[in-house]
Amino acid sequence: MAETSLDQLLSFLGKSPTPFHVVRELVSLLTDAGFSQLKETDTWGELDPGRYLVCRDQCSLVAFTLTGRSPAQTGFRVAGAHTDSPCLKLKPGPLLQVNNCQLLAVEIYGGPLLNPWFDRDLSLAGRVSWLRDETPCHALIDLKKPIGIIPSLAIHLDRQANTKHSINTQNDLAVLTGTEPYDLKELLGLPSEVGSDPLLSHDLFLYPVEPARITGIDRNLISGARLDNLISCYCLIDALLDVPDEENSIVLLSTHEEVGSQSAQGARGPFLNHILARLIPDPEKRCQAMARSLMISADNAHATHPNALDKHDPDHAVQLNKGIALKWNASQRYATDSHGAAFFKGLCRRASVKTQDFVMRNDMACGSTIGPITAALTGMRTLDIGIPSLAMHSAREVCGVSDVADLQAVMKLYFSLSDNDPLWQGHS
Where are the domains of the chain? Predict the structure, then answer.
């Protein structure tokens, strides 16, 4: 992976502590590259060939390119990922005072690995709303500096901390922010235009301030927060921006995947189908387009952990820096089938990218992605892939540098496949 591209990825990760910031950063990249932003409240009519993007609630995004050729005849090259990551979210009334300690109360968002959140410098970012002259106003904030920590209980007070320690999510996760009282507006350092206006509400998330970085003796590993699934988000948009000959393509980046996608902004909601209905108003042509389209769901895959080999299927080891993983599950927790896998492996072979096959042990539960959801809602053939990673859902995850480069390369090829290419013609 080129050093410049790697630096840009690390910069994006640092600027994207919440789904709101993810979408803001990607919208900036897209508009700088000539994408026109459409509003869902406007009348679109028949769009000219070109590059477009649509945001929903500042946290989900659809970007698409139109060639002027009918999608009913060409299909769409579709790819998707999610903008959210497991974390700790502030409760609506978060301020606590206990024994001269000032604390923030949190609730759990998604399924984070909680132990790594202890004894780590944390900051705060998200969206706040206030009232000015009877009008609700909103702003994104990112404090960027450490404002709190969740201190562990000393081992002297818990002699079984290294053997039988459990976390009570109600009692053990309050964030220590100091010893002096404050109000929320003071903590947030809200912009001067807020003034004395009352703070109405907030969607605020804690995040580790330590930046993502390159690590390992050979400098071929990336460690950082939110690698799942912001690396996929970045790679899909980067690929869409970099294709020389555009085809009818769509990138869907939706939030709330970590909590089931059941929302107006999530993959289980109507966002993508609303866009498709406006791009192809005729139902019959829309059905033709979906039958000719393909969806690649990109979401990190579990690499085989070297310290826990017994947690993985012994015949399907997945390695860091050894290629993109195709994700399989007979119960359709992942949407990959033999037809879609054949297409993707052919695509990777052409791009000189290796592939691996990931499957869970039969005696362990399997996660899922937006892939099966999107397939069920649209009828598109869908496959699930991901770059291998370790410590998924931790406050600090790990993946391979060359795997990220491979994902960029194969997605650029995917978005540039012409309608006459035998690989594309043979996917359906």
Answer: 3-85+225-425, 88-208
